[in-house]
């Protein structure tokens, strides 16, 4: 991606104040597409691990390429930063900060973005994206706010037992659509919670989701639990939910 057009990106550093997060605020980075016009409205991709999605996933550069060369409808990206030391506490469903973070996302972040930017206020125009536990928390946000979110991008989702049990206990997931990938070399990943076979847990989660009526776009590829693998799959993930302009 050496084309200079891809590298000419508009990324706004923003900060949202919060009553629900203990620190009282959260850093954001917001990508605005080429030709951004406040009189229009745009789909929005909401990324967990915001700094990593921009720096290691190169999602803004990928977005420019899709918009400029493939005619994908222009879209906004909101990266929500996370303190790595607090990541498991916020992203894991049994983490002590999980409820507050999920509630912040639905009750504070979405209204803030949709009041400040030309974001389309429609569930079909909101996409949640995350890697590993970021994929897991994206799923839990969509479960908590089904009126806000129907679409989830999960890159090697960390669907540990608690997440799978929550999915099993949910009666109807027919409105949910997920893009799911996992690397075939992710069979013994060492996490904060132990060593996990990500191929096995993603296969099981796919089966659970489909048994509850969810639509999955699932695939397995050569790759490990690293951004170098996930970055390669971000274009396909975005193409799944974002389409060429009519």
From TrEMBL:
InterPro entries: AB_hydrolase_fold, Esterase-like, Mycobacterial_A85_antigen. Pfam families: Esterase. PANTHER family: ENTEROCHELIN ESTERASE-RELATED (PTHR48098), IRON(III) ENTEROBACTIN ESTERASE (PTHR48098:SF3). This is Esterase family protein.
